[in-house]
Amino acid sequence: MDGTTAAASKTLLQTINLTTDWTEYIVFLPVTTDDYFAFSFDRIGTAPYVYLDDVYYEDMMPCAFPLNIDSSAVTATTATISWDASFSSGVTTYEYELRSVGNPTISGTVTGTTANVTGLLPGMIYEVHLRSVCGANEGDWTTFPHYIETSCAVVTSNFFEGFDYTATGTSSNPTAPLCWTYLNTTGGTSAYGYVTTTATRTPGGKGYYTYRPLQRLVTYF
Known about the structure:
This protein is an all-beta fold. It has strands at residues 70-72, 79-82, 93-99, 106-110, 114-117, 125-134, 137-138, 146-149, 192-196, 207-211.
């Protein structure tokens, strides 16, 4: 903004999806003659609520990481990731890493703002991290990742599932690993299944728990 009144000229830098979940946003401010920044929102329907916390105004790092990571064309083993160019001058390449707990990291280097990634594992959640490279200097990795889920595929080799990397659940919040489905064959509404930390084989690990209520057969003569 070029002033502190409602009539001041404004330039939109980034649209933010406001929710009640804490989310970190980083907005690089371009070099302009505007001296102020603000948070603006519209009233839609009933009275709006906006929560803000920990606002930092800092010098931009010398080799800033890119923002707005996105993904497309995600299959069981491939994905395309893209991002906005870094605001830093002197960026020569970008490095990317796709990280999945318990599996090797898939990485690469590109000169543009798009990368076609191969060698992913089916039915996995990957964190996508990026950093800028400015000549011989490597910048910091993105502070918050973009997530992708690869598609399921037919298993044709050895298979293991320890449930350790799936979120725990409850009777009212059923959880299962990607590509797994809990089938309630009892026909009742009180049957359920979820990942739990109770009575697991490995201390501190997880297992799968299922509850099936007793079914009674009633015969009328």
